[in-house]
Amino acid sequence: MESVLLPTLTKKEEIDRIINNTIDKVLVLRFGRISDENCLLLDDILEKSARDVSKFATVALVDVDSDQVQVYVNYFDITLFPSTVFFFNAHHMKLDSGTADHTKWVGKFHEKQDFIDVVEVIFRGAMKGKLIVHCPLPPERIPKYQLLYKDV
Amino acid sequence: MEEKNTKAKKKPSKKNEFEFCKVCRFHHDHGPRHKYFPRHKELLSAFLNRFRSKIADVRFFLKNPSFLRPQEESQNRVWCVFCDEDIVELGSSFACSKAINHFASSEHHKNVKQFLWKHGPSMDCADDFKISDADVAKWVRKCTALGNKDASSCTGQLSSDIHNNKLEFERTEKVQTHYINPNDLNDVKPLLYNTNEYQISHSGLPGVAHYGSHLNVDASHLPPGVIGMASNSSSLYGDSSGNVHSGAPPPWLNLNQTDMARVQEKMPVKNSKLNPRRVGAAWAERRKIEMEMEKRGEAVNSNTDADWLPNFGRVWQSGTRKDSRKEFEKEKRKLVVAAESISMESQERKLVKTESVSMESEEPVQIQPYVSKRAVCFAFTILN
């Protein structure tokens, strides 16, 4: 089920192109599978809020089951799905949400406004020159997970 | 040791609940100390100055009350930031009457105090946003005086009755320049000035001021609908050098040329407002230039080859992002080498199998035990 608004990327060239063509806007890349329930819930929130954040953010979905995308899955150390990675002007933006992994957002958002707040904080931080920002959400709204090093 | 313990105890700050700051327009968990942050103070002063200008307009009407025409009711509205409500002058006969009553009400005063206590460091400026009861009483007296004066001079001033207005017009003398047909009084009239709130507040309401003054002076011999229009149009356009019948150019063409010049002056300032210290600023500028060149059709050296990777800080690597990219590329090469070696081994195994099969068919392999040179020399000496 492909989203009407959000582009789904299955090749490395497509991901490279969208990273290089998004200028002065936050790029939100969702890595996940459409067969996963959490991923579908996250996609629903992303689709609904894509228009609201369209002035300062672009949202795209990446299908992790595609072979050509495995390079990025390994490079971004994505082990849990869905994972959302943020970029600004081809630079990776980190988000300190109190979890073990600051390089991405793992799991779904509680509601639309949470996603919009996170993207806004990332945009504001990026415009000020910060590469890492603090998550504005309260801890109960942040999904918890355990990060394992090589399945240990 | 004790000092260290006390310092360690002081370090973890209290975690406050997230709340929305109306002034800064974002969520924060700083708690009550947020109002002392310099950025918040700056935004607060800008926020309060904007509202002060709106209150100044309302105070103008407090000192100089004037009638409010039904057509202008929708334009005459104010948003009160302290009470979070829109004050619309529906059904009021004097300009800003509801706004004046609102700013004088006790509820508004309470909300102002609450707002300044929550957002502002000081309560000194609270009186700037309130209207005292004494001022309101004076205004009411002026309004009644105005009402009495106009009632004697002009009847049905604010009525939108076509029949009465038409009769009054027929009785009066012919208006010389820029008169408007009384049948059009209740239709949509052409805008004589911009009704943008910003322009109204900053230009000191020229149009409405004209209405007020002319209503008082010329009410005797002209019907209400025509007064403001005639005087205002002549005042706005200055010396009327011609009209549609004489074939003169329309005034908005001249105005447009000056407006365009102003707009063009303003435009370049807006483009360069992006922070030069934002993340990836240099890359963004280069990329914009490349995209413009691509649009023009010039050939551009594309950086995106198959091995390109964006700037990323990995999870299990320490050091800079360049180091993490190098490590990833090392790992990739190792994987590639390992894959190649596996494939080579499998190919060699295939080759050995094929060779062994071919060798056996030609001649049997002679296997001999290993004999060292010393053993050979020793045996030779013994024999000798």
From TrEMBL, chain A:
<dbReference type="GO" id="GO:0046540">
    <property type="term" value="C:U4/U6 x U5 tri-snRNP complex"/>
</dbReference>
<dbReference type="Pfam" id="PF02966">
    <property type="entry name" value="DIM1"/>
</dbReference>
<dbReference type="InterPro" id="IPR036249">
    <property type="entry name" value="Thioredoxin-like_sf"/>
</dbReference>
<comment type="subunit">
    <text>Homodimer. Interacts with the U5-102 kDa protein subunit of the spliceosome.</text>
</comment>
<dbReference type="GO" id="GO:0000398">
    <property type="term" value="P:mRNA splicing, via spliceosome"/>
</dbReference>
<keyword id="KW-0507">mRNA processing</keyword>
<dbReference type="InterPro" id="IPR004123">
    <property type="entry name" value="Dim1"/>
</dbReference>
<keyword id="KW-0539">Nucleus</keyword>
<comment type="function">
    <text>Essential role in pre-mRNA splicing. Required in cell cycle progression for S/G(2) transition.</text>
</comment>
<keyword id="KW-0508">mRNA splicing</keyword>
<protein>
    <recommendedName>
        <fullName>Thioredoxin-like protein 4B</fullName>
    </recommendedName>
</protein>
<dbReference type="GO" id="GO:0005682">
    <property type="term" value="C:U5 snRNP"/>
</dbReference>
<keyword id="KW-0131">Cell cycle</keyword>
<comment type="similarity">
    <text>Belongs to the DIM1 family.</text>
</comment>
<dbReference type="GO" id="GO:0005681">
    <property type="term" value="C:spliceosomal complex"/>
</dbReference>
TrEMBL record, chain B:
<dbReference type="InterPro" id="IPR028015">
    <property type="entry name" value="CCDC84-like"/>
</dbReference>
<dbReference type="Pfam" id="PF14968">
    <property type="entry name" value="CCDC84"/>
</dbReference>
<protein>
    <recommendedName>
        <fullName>TITAN-like protein</fullName>
    </recommendedName>
</protein>
